[in-house]
Every structure is written in C-alpha cells, then in structure tokens.
Amino acid sequence: INKPFLPVAAGDISPRAAWAIVSASLAGGLAIVYNTFSPLIFGLYALGLSVGGLYSVPPVQLKRFPIAAGLIISTVRGFLLNFGVYYAVREAIGVPFQWNPVVTFIASFMTVFAAVIAVTKDLPDVAGDAAYKVKTFATRFGVRPVARGACLTLGAAYAVATGLALLSPDGIFRRVPMAIGHALLGLKLWRTYARLDASSLGSIKRFYGGIWQLFYLQYALYPFI
Q1: In this structure, are residues 149 and 119 in contact, taking their beta carbons and an 8 Å threshold?
Q2: Measured between alpha carbons, how far is 102 from 78 in angstroms, rounded to an integer?
Q3: Could you tell me which residue, 28 or 2, shows the higher pLDDT?
C-alpha cells in the first residue's frame, strides 16, 4: 500500500532472493570490517547490525513499535554512523584516536535529527499503516501534531547549535558559518512546516522530503564549522 514500487512488493525480486542478498551483504560487511579495523570499530559495526536487525527482521521487527523504532534509528543514524565512521576513517589513515568536540556536536545533533526522521518517516504511510494495524505516532496522533512536534524539536536543536556557535570558547567552532548556517536551516525548516497541508498526501510527501533536504544540507554545512 505505502510503497508498491519497491523491488519485493513490485515483484522484481523474490523474497528468497532478497534474503540471499541481505545475508551476503551481512557476511561480507562483517568479514571486511573484522579484517580491516580494530576491535572497537568492529564492535560498533556489529552493534549497528544487531540493532538494525532487531528493527527489521521477523519475528522481532521493533519497527512496529514507535518508541523502539525511534531509539534504534537515532542510535544508528545519529551516534554510530557519525562517531563510528569518523573514527574508522581516522584509523584507516593511521591517525590516533582523540576526542573531538566538533565530532561530539555532530553526533549529538544528528542523533536528534535521526529521531525526527524516525517520527516523520511514517507521515506519508498513514493509510497503509492503519490498514495493517501498525501503530505509529502518525496513526495515533495525526499528521499535523506529529509534524509540529518534530519541527519544534528540530528547531530547538538549530537554536542550540546557533547558541553554541556564539557562546563556545574560541577555537572550537567557526562561529560565523556555524551560527549563520544553522539559523538559515532553521528558517528553511519553518518554511517547510508552514507549507504543510495535512490533508494532502502530496504535501505530506513534500514535507518529509524537505526534512531530508535539511538532513543533507546539515552534512554540507559540517566541513565549514
């Protein structure tokens, strides 16, 4: 109902083939990381795979439960992805492990952002989720209240980021691009929400697409802060 164009739903590949592809990717990824990186990076990678499996794989499928789904997505896409990839790259090029306040900020900010995505990803899927009795925040509370709460949360994160740029000690962040960049992204977020028509599926999809635009613009901003 929600995404009939996806490969299994569209009949382009069989469920058995899908399982084979996923299983081969799982084994290959574990083998590469185990033989290439330190136990710390391998442990983070395995943790991400484990919680990702709990999210998706039957019979557990924690994605059926909105709070559990949100915690998993924010942990993997927020903390593990940003912290783990950064230090994996450092290790790969032979740079010693060292705490970095900018990376700490990025991992923290993107954890909040990932939680917002975890909530808003269900907005375009209300019809299908309701038909299959999948409980999400969108089916429980409605599109508009969920979108409002998500935007207030992300807007608060933009405000904190702008404040950090202005108030942190010298030398931690580049004040001007960090403050102006997050202020502009916060403005774009407000405009995205203002254009939302909760009764129109097309408008809901554009709103969700706008959240993803902000997500990638955030990464485009990071090299400058």
Answers
A1: yes
A2: 14
A3: 28
